[in-house]
Amino acid sequence: MTHLSKCLVLVLAAALLPGCPFESKVPLGEPTRHDVDASLTGYWVWDDPDDKSKSILMTVRPFNDSEYLAILQEEGKSPSQFRAFQVQVGDQVFWNVNEVEASYPPKTFVFMRCKVAASGELSLQFVGSKNVPKTLATDAAGLTAFLKTRHADPSIYDSDKGLYRWRRPKQGEVEKGLLRRL
């Protein structure tokens, strides 16, 4: 796994979570202008289901008319920043996510589906590396065609943990942009 697989991607973004997302040298498409989805912005908390003492704070904000910036903060570590943007693939929306680094263009992209439930929970599901041909890591058109025909196949998603579920922070849990234990 590369450095991106070792951290979480979010977007809105993620890579500080466990699992092996599929990594691509190319995005599924280019960012396109769309209205900012207010239900995605703000603070989100991920509680590690395997270690109740571990949580990650994610701050999501619009970056411009077509992209979001997600900042992931894990206790005791430097924050990681990711950009995320939507691309329509058939009747599905996939998020393209890459780490914001000093080098440009981005080294890798990962892809996920995200959904905000009526309950307010944010679910992230990454395209996994197990059943997606590695040859598609440099072929945006081929990868898009692959996802268009297989988006409903659960085997193409990261199955190590399934869906990553994020919640809104509790009252007083975020102070000055940092997660604090209650």
Account of the 3D structure:
Residues 1-18 have low confidence and may be disordered. The chain is mostly beta strands and 182 residues long. The chain has one domain. It has two helices and twelve strands; from the N terminus they run αβββββββββαβββ. Strand 8 (110-116) and strand 9 (122-126) form a beta hairpin. It has helices spanning 3-6, 140-150; strands at 8-11, 13-15, 42-47, 55-62, 68-74, 80-89, 92-99, 110-116, 122-126, 164-166, 174-175, 178-179. Strands 3-4-5-6-7-8-9-10 form an eight-stranded antiparallel beta sheet.
Brief rundown of the structure:
The protein is 8% helix and 36% strand.
What labels describe this entry?
mainly beta, disordered N terminus, 36% strand, 12 strands, single chain, 182 residues, two-stranded antiparallel sheet, 8-stranded antiparallel beta sheet
